[in-house]
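User: Can you recover a sequence for this backbone? Please restate the input before giving your answer.

Assistant: Of course. Working from this structure:
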């Protein structure tokens, strides 16, 4: 009833419907089996399509056995079966395309909504960002001034240390440091 044949291009299975024609109807149909491509690699879809074809071929075989139709009547029923199958396939494909179009449209709507929200956010934040940038510029200018102050302040501290070192060398601590071969102001200068 359902068989999978690997695709030459992709190697994925392509499903086919196959049903044996009853011996009484073979001379009328001129076939020993009915085999149709199901146009899917999805096993669940293939099962659904195969079930529908099985029901239709069953109707064809019952009609052929009960009504004793002519060969032309049976072939007309067979063509009707094929046409209805192809129409159902086409309807499924169109339905799938419509669903895909609807999903794409929904995606575009969501994207447009996101762009609108981002635009509103940026328009709200932009004036505040400009204020922050202006404040950062002012802060940078202040820090540059403070670096100049820090250099001046550091020079002043070094001058004070030198003065204090001179005073310490004239004290008993300075004499002790001289005995130990340690300059009295080494530790003080390294702190700056």
């Amino acid at each position: 009833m359902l068989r999978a044949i690997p695709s030459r291009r992709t190697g994925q299975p392509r499903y086919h419907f196959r049903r044996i024609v009853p011996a009484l109807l073979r001379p009328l149909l001129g076939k020993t089996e009915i085999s149709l491509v199901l146009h899917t690699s999805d096993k669940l879809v293939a099962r659904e399509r195969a079930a529908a074809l099985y029901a239709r071929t069953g109707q064809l075989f019952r009609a052929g056995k009960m009504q004793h139709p002519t060969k032309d009547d049976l072939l007309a029923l067979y063509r009707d079966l094929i046409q209805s199958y192809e129409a159902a396939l086409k309807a499924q494909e169109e339905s799938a395309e419509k669903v895909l179009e609807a999903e794409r449209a929904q995606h575009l709507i969501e994207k447009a909504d996101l762009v609108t929200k981002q635009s509103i956010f940026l328009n709200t934040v932009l004036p505040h960002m400009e204020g922050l940038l202006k404040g950062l510029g002012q802060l940078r200018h202040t820090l540059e001034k403070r670096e100049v102050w820090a250099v001046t302040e550091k020079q002043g501290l070094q001058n004070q240390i030198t003065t204090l070192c001179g005073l310490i060398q004239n004290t008993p601590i300075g004499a002790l440091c001289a005995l130990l071969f340690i300059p009295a102001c080494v530790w003080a200068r390294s702190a700056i």
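That completes the design. Residues 184-192 have pLDDT under 50 and may be disordered.
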